[in-house]
Design goal:
The complex is a heterodimer. By secondary structure, chain A is of the alpha/beta class. Chain A contains eleven helices and 19 strands. Classes of the chains: A alpha/beta, B mainly alpha.
Chain lengths: ~550, ~170
């Protein structure tokens, strides 16, 4: 290791995603020198993203190199058994045909290595968690109370929305009262208007989604162009991913230094138990950097992974893990997608991937037997995207195939729901004996749905079916469920925040219990998942709050 | 074959030449839907059968035959397999309809391909596999083309219409 290349800063932030990008920028704007270490690369939306090109359908994802294809963090293994009574919760083609699944599948770890982290491929949802999500135990008798309230976080939500230019409609009766969004809500797409007729019939409220996809030119960037390509990278640079909307502010201060293609392998500690350096790999060389304070922002799998792997005499079971809390309370993404074929052309490819949501079921119900969930309409949650995806799924060729294409193209719509997964200390990740190519232990995940989760998922699926049937003679093509296909899109809880050091990993200000100079600002600190809301804005708001507390 | 151009010409003659073998006596007739795009060319006839011209352009109009020929230049073995397959379907056409494939109506050409695909004889296995591969390639090429997008009123990744942003933003 070459000592002459050692960098020092006031703060080292590890990970440049939703949490890391925000906290690094906020600290730089507050006058701190910040070194931001990012494992992935910078992407250039003008040339790297497939949707920039006419042959986009035949191009692979720009983010493939940063996915778990290269670094399978999770050591795959079969999940817990599926009870015969729960087969109706599993994925299936057509509603009536139950598959005979025996076990839950292995985890599908979707993430991006890149400056901006998973905001590079996220669909821009920018939700404030509902007030009641912060007080689950007090209000409903289950779940965990957060160590701070919605009201305490509210100013940081507003600040994060301003940085991102979030577009939304403040008149959402299911959310706390608030002022105007930085940009107005988008109009609903044709496909969503078609679904809205059904939701109106049912007396449900299908509302414009609040999105980090500005509806007007914002900070010199293009407004959303409705390509629906968020997941593949916005070809216009319109999506407010962290690399475009946030980090430039930090770089302008002259206080922020970003090293990309840099992977942190170890957090070094001194005898007092504080962090006194990070060991990282860059260009094949191991190097070291030091700071007064350190922030971990690598997500709900990688942050606990690094903590557990950074063992020493002072921390034989990993940093911050004195009470065996690191990696526990893993909350999966719990969701289901019902793919339907509309009975008329609805131009399903047009518009944002998730331009609307139904929050009517966002509070626990059935007298506490089920948790909250949120429904929505999506163009991105099935294989049906551009013309080629339809052509490949219509059998045969010739006149019949062409006629079918003209009739069916653009009619496939996804109705989906996301729900809160119960925090349970037995759902956890631990280190595997197997290592990746750079010698870091892989991760093993043990997670299951309890009866409460299954009741929630069952109710959510039923509501999706009701919504599909209310659209009229729509044909149900497919049902996807995370019960048999565990997903890691919105994971949380593995370094949970709390006041009690024996039950949590960080305090309300993101500081790791027992370590003076280590903070965590990412999804791992969330004590809940907002009843199915998307967590990114909450992660970003928490990051801003933690930055303020650090200064 | 010393030059790429010569090889290209060879392939064109090869695929066109089947028409000569099959006879040209029916060229003046006009059976229901012999697309003018077949143009006496067996490859064109095959491509048109996969995505035919009707009220909208088909794969021939979209230039897919030229793409296939370019592919065969790069991969001559693929060209040979294609030639063998076309010879086989021409044989079926002559056997069933007493007419070369490229002079059949669309429905008849579709029937010939269907017969080929359902034929389980070992001697036609390679031809069946080649047919399926080429079919997939033609469909992929067509639905990746502006011709198909116009047919489907699809203009991604820059959607027009709703809402309509006509001018690209600065720096886009």
């Amino acid at each position: 290791m070459k000592k002459d290349k050692e960098i020092t800063a006031d703060v080292i932030v590890i990970g440049s995603g939703a949490g890391g990008g925000f906290i690094a920028t906020a600290l730089a704007e507050a006058g701190k020198s910040v070194l931001l270490l990012e494992r992935g690369q910078w992407f250039d939306y003008k040339k790297d993203f497939p949707a920039r090109y006419p042959d986009w359908q035949n191009r692979g994802s720009a983010f493939r190199l940063g996915s778990s294809f290269i670094d399978p963090t999770i050591d795959p293994h079969r999940g817990p058994p599926i009870h015969q009574d729960d087969l109706d919760l599993c994925s299936r083609r057509s509603i009536n045909k139950l598959q005979n699944y025996k076990y839950r599948g292995g985890f599908n770890y979707r993430r991006v290595f890149g400056v901006g982290g998973s905001t590079l491929h996220y669909q821009g949802e920018a939700h404030r968690f509902p007030e009641h999500a912060f007080e689950m135990k007090d209000r409903y008798g289950f779940g965990i109370n957060w160590p701070l309230s919605y009201r305490e976080l509210e100013p940081y939500y507003a600040k994060a929305e301003k940085w991102l230019g979030v577009a939304g409609d403040p008149a959402n009766p299911f959310k706390a009262e608030r002022g105007l969004y930085p940009t107005p809500a988008h109009d609903l797409s044709t496909k969503t208007q078609w679904v809205k007729r059904a939701s109106d019939k049912l007396g449900w409220s299908l509302l414009p989604n609040s999105l980090a996809l500005p509806s007007q030119t914002y900070d010199g960037r293009s407004p959303c162009r409705y390509t629906g390509m968020c997941v593949k990278g916005c070809p216009f640079g319109a999506k407010s991913s962290v690399d475009l909307a946030v980090l430039p502010r930090g770089l302008k201060t002259g206080k922020l230094k970003i090293l990309d293609k840099t992977r942190v392998l170890d957090l070094e500690t001194n005898l007092a138990g504080n962090i006194n350096g990070v060991l990282y790999m860059q260009d094949g060389e191991k190097k070291r950097a030091t700071a007064d304070r350190y922030v971990l922002s690598t997500g709900a799998i990688e942050s606990p992974r690094l903590l557990l792997a950074s063992q020493s005499g002072r921390y034989p079971s990993g940093i911050g893990n004195q009470h065996d809390r690191v990696g526990r309370n893993l909350m999966e993404t719990m969701f289901s997608v019902l793919t339907v074929e509309a009975d008329r052309p609805v131009q399903a490819w047009k518009g944002q991937p998730i331009d609307s949501r139904i929050w009517d079921f966002n509070t626990p119900g059935q007298e506490g037997k089920r948790n909250g969930f949120v429904l929505g309409v999506s163009s991105s949650m099935s294989a049906y995207t551009g013309p080629l995806s339809y052509a490949r799924r219509i059998a045969g060729s010739g006149k019949a195939h062409k006629d079918a294409m003209r009739e069916k193209f653009g009619r496939v719509v996804n109705l989906f729901g996301t729900a809160e997964h119960s925090p349970d200390e037995n759902n956890r990740m631990i280190l595997s004996d197997r290592k990746d190519r750079q010698g870091m232990p892989k991760v093993m995940v043990s997670s299951d749905y309890n009866q409460h989760d299954k009741t929630t998922l069952r109710e959510m699926i039923n509501k999706l079916i009701i919504l599909a049937e209310a659209t009229g003679p729509a044909k149900i093509i497919n049902l996807f469920s995370t019960y048999d296909n565990p997903q890691t899109t919105h994971m949380a809880g593995t370094c949970m925040m709390g006041d009690d050091p024996e039950q949590s990993v960080v305090d309300a200000n993101g500081k790791v219990h027992g370590v003076k100079n280590l903070y965590i600002a990412d999804a791992s600190i969330l004590p809940g998942q907002g009843m199915g809301d998307s967590p990114s804005l909450t992660i970003q708001a928490l990051a801003l709050r933690i930055a303020e507390k650090m200064v | 074959m010393t030059t790429r151009r010569a090889f290209f010409r060879y392939l064109t003659v090869l695929f066109t030449g089947m028409a000569g073998i099959a006879g040209c006596s029916r060229e003046d007739e006009n059976p229901a839907h012999t697309s003018s795009n077949t143009d006496g060319n067996l490859l064109n006839a095959f491509v048109d059968t996969i995505v035919p011209e009707d009220q909208d352009p088909g794969a021939v109009e979209a230039g897919i035959p030229d793409q296939l020929l370019a592919h065969f230049i790069k991969e001559p073995e693929a060209g040979e397999r294609a030639q063998a397959m076309l010879k086989a379907i021409d044989g079926i056409a002559l056997s069933i309809f007493q007419s070369p494939f490229m002079q059949l109506a669309l429905k008849q050409r579709e029937m010939v391909l269907d017969i080929m695909l359902k034929n389980n004889e070992e001697k036609h296995k390679s031809a069946r596999t080649t047919l399926l591969r080429l079919r997939a390639r033609i469909i992929k090429a067509f639905y990746s083309s502006p011709t198909a997008w116009e047919m489907l009123a699809y203009s991604a990744p820059y959607p027009a219409g709703y809402p309509d942003f006509n001018m690209p933003p600065p720096g886009a």
